[in-house]
Amino acid sequence: xxxxxxxxxxxxxxxxxxxxxxxxxxxxxxxxxxxxxxxxxxxxxxxxxxxxxxxxxxxxxxxxxxxxxxxxxxxxxxxxxxxxxxxxxxxxxxxxxxxxxxxxxxxxxxxxxxxxxxxxxxxxxxxxxxxxxxxxxxxxxxxxxxxxxxxxxxxxxxxxxxxxxxxxxxxxxxxxxxxxxxxxxxxxxxxxxxxxxxxxxxxxxxxxxxxxxxxxxxxxxxxxxxxxxxxxxxxxxxxxxxxxxxxxxxxxxxxxxxxxxxxxxxxxxxxxxx
Length: 274
Hints:
Elements: H1 2-7, H2 22-33, E1 40-42, H3 51-59, E2 64-67, E3 78-82, H4 84-98, E4 103-109, H5 115-131, E5 135-142, H6 147-160, E6 166-169, H7 172-184, E7 193-196, H8 200-207, E8 213-216, H9 219-234, E9 246-249, E10 252-254
Parallel strand pairs: 1-2, 2-3, 3-9, 4-5, 4-6, 6-7, 7-8
Antiparallel strand pairs: 8-10
Helix pairs in contact: 4-5, 6-7
C-alpha cells in the first residue's frame, strides 16, 4: 500500500484495532470516517457487521475496497483477497505428495463462522476427496486463533491418532500452537505440518524444520491493488463498471528449499510497515 501510495501520489494513513474482535474494528472505522477520507481500505473481521457501514460510506461518495476478508453482500467498490479455496487445495496437493498419497491427516481451523476460514478448509477437504482417496481427513477442530487452544487440540489429536500422518492448520495463530504441540510430543519431523500464512514466527519455525511448508498469501499485492484502484477511481480515471468486483490474488507454497528465493520476499509477512 505504501509503495502504491507513492506511485499514485496519495496520502496513506493506517489504523488498526488491537484484536480481531469486531467491536474495536467498528469503532476504528467510525473514527476514520470522521476524518473525511477520499477512500477507505478495510480488512473486515465480520462478513455481516460491516455491510451497513460500508453501504453508507459508498452512498455518501466514500469508496471502500475490502481486503483479505469479504462481505456477505457485494456492497463495496472492490474486494481484494486470496482465492482461499484454491489455496486450501494447494495445501492438500503439497501434503498429499509429501505423504505419497496415503495416510491420516488432521485439520485445525480458527472458526466455522468466517467465510475465508471455511474456504481454506473446504478447498483442502474437497481436493483430498477428489484426488487422494487413500488419505483420510479427520474432522475439523476449531481453536479460534488461540495458540494455547490449538496446542491442546493438537496434543489430543496426536494421542487419539498415534499414526497421524500429517496436519493442516489454516491460520497463523493456530499453526503456531499446533506446531508447539508436535514439538512437545517429540514428533518433530515425524508429522509433516502445512501451515497457512507466513508470519515471522512461522518462517523461523519453517527454517527450523517445525513446518514442512507454509501456504503464503500475497499481502503486498493486496495492499498495492487496493490503493491503485481507489486512487484511479477517485480521480475518475476508471469507472465502477470497469472494476471487477473480485480481484483475486494468488498463493504460493513456501518451503525451506525455496525460502531464500528473491521471488518469495513479497509473500513473507512482516511485523511492521516500513
